[in-house]
Design goal:
CATH superfamily of the largest domain: Metalloenzyme, LuxS/M16 peptidase-like
CATH architecture of the largest domain: 2-Layer Sandwich
CATH class of the largest domain: Alpha Beta
Structural class: alpha+beta
Number of domains: 2
Order of helices and strands: HEEEHHEEHHHHHEHEEHEEHHHHHEH
Strand content: 15-25%
Number of strands: 11
Helix content: 40-55%
């Protein structure tokens, strides 16, 4: 009986989103005033609009990290020239609409979400936030202090701290070493005047992509967007950079820190988005993550929550790590697992199970208009192909075991390691050496 229930649950997870997608119209794109607009009919009464500003950490030097995050936050938290912060938010609350922004490694986004019947009320507020932001000095100081408080909290979080350190070590001197949220040093120095000036420098049509998910008349949408984009300057031509990462050799950087346990994280290379190995590597790292978890936690009891994954941005990379009381044994176990997979390869069963799980997750993640818009935007900016958001389930079906094994062998090689914890418990040479470390011998009890 339990097995039947499980089958029904899994079927529901797959079939309900599939039915939802069947109700949606066909996605299309159009150019308005030089800006690409991607439209996905939704088959429901919600309208989601996402304005993308490309560049992310490419847009500012490390000394100004956090400035884009503050600028995008200020669009709603400082009010507009027509409405102060409270008036602006009260108007949104009356219709239960959402307007707000997000900044990441590759782009910033500014969104609105409302029911179709309230679109005419919310759209002007959305446009005002982007085109006539107030940048009120008092409110700016408040959101800057909020950002400083958040950064202090993140610094005390060992998972966040090791993640940031690993990226700073691996991508030293490169864009991906920057934290979009900034640092205490950089954020504290930012002023309202320079943040406003920065926003004006990036808010232009040359960096922009607009995604719309909802049922809205095409002609009416064109009219709205044409009027909006007439208020946005063209700006200088902009090209999103894609950069490969590959460590020249295994390297290791420790930081002595008083923690309850030790944290280690390594970064290695990955295929660029849009290349033949990309989809295969996505699946390969998901399979590896499961094997890594089993080997590190279940079989060796080295960590409660070992992690491995793939970050598929414009500078893609794979990562692996754990919190552990025995970092020397962890590196041996992990490196031996990598060698085993390279020698024996993934299996057809590995691939079959992962394809099923991945495709189910794709459907599950895109049940909301917001999630669909985010997927379309990410695929457009990172992969240069928004249609991948709708074809990924079919694309993944074409991946073979040979593709998995080739991608894993090609990219999971030299690893850049970062370590925080008791430096006396780790042997840096084990992490830096080319040869795979041997498992340390267990001490005999007498």
């Amino acid at each position: 009986m339990r097995k039947i229930v499980c089958v029904i649950v899994v079927a529901a997870i797959v079939l309900i989103p599939a039915k939802l997608f069947a109700q949606m119209g066909e996605a299309y794109e159009m150019k308005i005033n030089g800006v690409k607009v991607i439209v996905q009919p939704s088959g429901n009464e919600i309208i989601e609009v996402l304005t993308i500003i490309k560049g992310g950490v490419q847009n500012y030097p490390a000394t100004k990290a956090g400035i884009e995050n503050l600028a995008i936050t200020a669009l709603t938290e400082c009010g507009t020239l027509k409405d102060d912060k409270n008036t602006f938010k009260n108007k949104l609350d009356k219709v239960s609409a959402e307007v707000g922004g997000f900044t990441g490694m590759d782009y910033a986004s500014f969104r609105m979400n409302c029911i179709a019947g309230d679109f005419e009320k919310v759209w002007p507020l959305y446009v005002d936030a982007m085109t006539i932001p107030r940048f009120d000095a008092k409110e700016f100081d408040r959101i800057k202090q909020d950002q400083v408080t958040q950064l202090r909290a993140q610094e005390s979080n060992p998972d966040f701290a090791i993640d940031q350190m690993a990226k700073q070590v691996a991508f030293a001197g490169k864009n991906y070493s920057k934290n979009p949220g900034g640092t205490l040093e950089t954020v504290n120095k930012l002023t309202v005047a320079e943040t406003k000036s920065y926003y004006k420098s990036i808010f232009n049509r040359s960096r922009m992509v607009i995604v719309v998910v909802g049922e809205i008349d095409k002609k009416a949408l064109e009219e709205k967007l044409t009027a909006f984009l007439a208020k946005v300057p063209q700006g200088v031509p902009f090209v999103q950079k894609k950069e490969s990462f590959a460590a020249a050799a295994n390297n290791f950087q420790p930081k002595d820190k008083e923690l309850a346990t030790n944290y280690v994280k390594g970064i290695t290379s990955a295929p660029l988005p849009g290349t033949p190995d990309y989809n295969a590597f996505v699946l390969a790292m998901r399979i590896f993550s499961r094997k890594h978890f089993i080997e590190v936690r279940t079989n060796n009891g080295l960590s409660y929550a070992p992690q491995a994954g793939f970050s598929g941005g414009t500078t893609p990379y794979a990562n692996v790590g754990a919190s552990t009381t025995d970092p020397n044994k962890y590196i041996a176990v992990t490196r031996q697992l990598i060698d085993k997979i390279k020698t024996e390869g993934f299996t057809e069963e590995d691939l079959k199970n992962q394809k099923t799980g991945y495709i189910t997750n794709v459907y599950y993640r895109q049940e909301t208009n917001s999630a669909q818009a985010a997927a379309l935007a990410s695929n457009e900016v990172v992969n240069g192909n928004w249609k991948r958001a709708n074809t990924i389930k079919d694309d993944m079906k074409n991946v073979t075991v040979a593709d998995l094994n080739r991608a894993f062998k090609t990219y999971v090689n030299n690893i850049s390691w970062a370590y925080q914890g008791d430096s006396k418990k780790v042997d840096p040479q084990l992490y830096k050496q080319k040869e795979t470390p041997k498992l340390p011998q267990e001490k005999k009890a007498f």
